[in-house]
Amino acid sequence: MYHPRELYPSLGTGYRLGAPQPGADSSFPPALAEGYRYPDLDTPKLDCFLSGIEAAPRTLAAPPPLPPLPPTLGTEAPPPAPESLHPLPGVSLSLDNRELWKEFNSVGTEMIITKAGRRMFPACRVSVTGLDPEARYLFLLDVVPVDGARYRWQGRRWEPSGKAEPRLPDRVYIHPDSPATGAHWMRQPVSFHRVKLTNSTLDPHGHVRPRLGPPDKGWGWDQGRGSLLFPPFQLILHSMHKYQPRIHLVRAAQLCSQHWGGVASFRFPETMFISVTAYQNPRITQLKIAANPFAKGFRENGRNCKRERDARVKRKLRGPEPVATATYGSDAPGGPCDSTLGGDARESDPEQAPAPGEAAPAPAPPCGGPSAEAYLLHPAAFHGAPGHLPTRNPSFPEAPDSGRPAPYSAAFLELQPGPPGSGYPAAAPPASFASHFLQGGPFPLPYPGPGAYLDVGSKPMY
DNA sequence: TCAACTCACACATTTGAAGTGC
DNA sequence: AGCACTTCAAATGTGTGAGTTG
C-alpha cells in the first residue's frame, strides 16, 4: 500500500496513521481495491491558488478511534454516534434530523437512485458548533461504500449477495454556501438536501440543469446573492449497495485555498443506506410517504393513495364519471397526514438564504475572480490533484451534452484510477484507511472502509 | 422465470415571473 | 420608481405500476 507520506511528501510528519480499529475489515474484495495514486504533486500549478492561505495551523489532538460500522441494516445496531476526526479542535457536528434518520435506520434505509438523479430523503442536515465565527469554512458531502458486498432483499431483510460492483468515480458535493464564515454555518442547520443520487454514468460531471430560470443562464456568479450559482450535484452509486454519507468541514478562506486550516470529517451511522432503483421494503415506502411532503399524494387521504388509484382505474373501466370525490376535501392542509411532517418534511432549506440583515458571504476574489468560481474552473488544483491528472475515466462515455461551458463541465471533481501505462497503478494498494476526507474527497485512497484512520491534521497540505 | 431496471403517470411542492396596490 | 404582497404557471420531486431487459 502507499503510505500517506509517499503520496503527499510535502505534508511532512503532520499526519500519522492510527492503529486499525477493532473490527476493521481489511479483506475487501479486489474489485473494491481499484485505487488511485497521484504522481508527485505539481505545486507550481497551484501557484494561482495561493491567495487564500489560512492562519497558522493548530496542533492536533489524536483523533478518537472510529467504531466499526454495524454489520447489516435492519439489525440491532450499536448506539449511533457521530464519528469524526478532529483536526479542527472543538468543532462538533450533530445530525439535526437524527430522529427521522433513526426511524428509517431502524427499518433499513433505502434510497432510490434514478438515471435523472433522485434526492436523498431524509436529507443530511447537521448543526455545527465550535467554529471560529470569523474564519471561513467549506462544507462537503460525499457517499462511500460501506463494504464490499452487493445486497439483495430477501423478503424480510437485506442480505449480502455477492461481490460489490467496481467502485464508481468519487464525487464530492460542495455545499452551495461554501465558503462561508463559521458564524454563518453555526447560525442555522446546514442542509444537503440538493444532492442527488444516480446510477447513470452518462453525465460524468454530476450536474443537472437548473431547476428554474432562463436555460441560457448557466452557472456562474450570482451578483445579487453574492454567491455562486451551484447546480444540484449527482453522486453516482451502484444499486443494491450499502453506502455511508460523510460530511467534511474544511477551514479555508476560499475554495481554491492552497493551505487549509484544518479538516474534520464526520459520519453518522444512522445515515447509512442501501441504494435501490425501486423500494424493496414496504415499511420504507410507508415511512417515505409519511414523512416526505412530495409524496403527500400517496397518503391515506391523498388523491393518489391506493384507494383512490384503484377507484380511478375502476372509473376508467366503467367510463367517464364526475371527477370530484369526497376524498378531495379531506386532503386539505392540516389534515392528519400533515402531522407526520417534521424535520425533512420542511425542506424549504432555510440555510440557503442568508438571515435578514446578514450579508451573504462576500466573495473572496482571488485568482482573478470568486474563489468558488476558481474552484469550478480548477477543481483538480483545489483538491491537490495535478492538472494533468485524468479527470474522466475513459470507460465512462462522454456525456451527450459535453459541449457545455467550462464552469459547467469542470464543476465536479472526479478522481479516476489511472489508465494502464499512465504512471498511476490501476490496482490500488490494499486499503487500511478509515473513511476520511482524503479518501472520498480530494484524494480518494483505495477504499474508505472501516480501518485505521489518517490524521491529516491542520498542516498545510502542500 | 425472475430480479432488477426504466418509464410514463398523477399529484404535491417549490419557486420565479407577472400582476397589483400603495 | 420602488417596494411588498399575491397570484399564477411551470419546473421539479414523489411513489406507483406496467413494461422491458438480461
TrEMBL record:
<dbReference type="GO" id="GO:0000981">
    <property type="term" value="F:DNA-binding transcription factor activity, RNA polymerase II-specific"/>
</dbReference>
<feature type="region of interest" description="Disordered">
    <location>
        <begin position="60"/>
        <end position="84"/>
    </location>
</feature>
<dbReference type="InterPro" id="IPR001699">
    <property type="entry name" value="TF_T-box"/>
</dbReference>
<dbReference type="InterPro" id="IPR008967">
    <property type="entry name" value="p53-like_TF_DNA-bd_sf"/>
</dbReference>
<dbReference type="GO" id="GO:0000978">
    <property type="term" value="F:RNA polymerase II cis-regulatory region sequence-specific DNA binding"/>
</dbReference>
<keyword id="KW-0217">Developmental protein</keyword>
<keyword id="KW-0539">Nucleus</keyword>
<keyword id="KW-0238">DNA-binding</keyword>
<feature type="compositionally biased region" description="Low complexity">
    <location>
        <begin position="351"/>
        <end position="361"/>
    </location>
</feature>
<dbReference type="GO" id="GO:0000785">
    <property type="term" value="C:chromatin"/>
</dbReference>
<dbReference type="InterPro" id="IPR036960">
    <property type="entry name" value="T-box_sf"/>
</dbReference>
<feature type="region of interest" description="Disordered">
    <location>
        <begin position="300"/>
        <end position="404"/>
    </location>
</feature>
<feature type="compositionally biased region" description="Pro residues">
    <location>
        <begin position="62"/>
        <end position="82"/>
    </location>
</feature>
<feature type="domain" description="T-box">
    <location>
        <begin position="95"/>
        <end position="300"/>
    </location>
</feature>
<dbReference type="InterPro" id="IPR046360">
    <property type="entry name" value="T-box_DNA-bd"/>
</dbReference>
<dbReference type="GO" id="GO:0001708">
    <property type="term" value="P:cell fate specification"/>
</dbReference>
<dbReference type="Pfam" id="PF00907">
    <property type="entry name" value="T-box"/>
</dbReference>
<dbReference type="GO" id="GO:0045893">
    <property type="term" value="P:positive regulation of DNA-templated transcription"/>
</dbReference>
<dbReference type="GO" id="GO:0005634">
    <property type="term" value="C:nucleus"/>
</dbReference>
<keyword id="KW-0805">Transcription regulation</keyword>
<protein>
    <recommendedName>
        <fullName>T-box transcription factor TBX6</fullName>
    </recommendedName>
</protein>
<keyword id="KW-0804">Transcription</keyword>
<feature type="compositionally biased region" description="Basic and acidic residues">
    <location>
        <begin position="300"/>
        <end position="311"/>
    </location>
</feature>
<dbReference type="InterPro" id="IPR018186">
    <property type="entry name" value="TF_T-box_CS"/>
</dbReference>
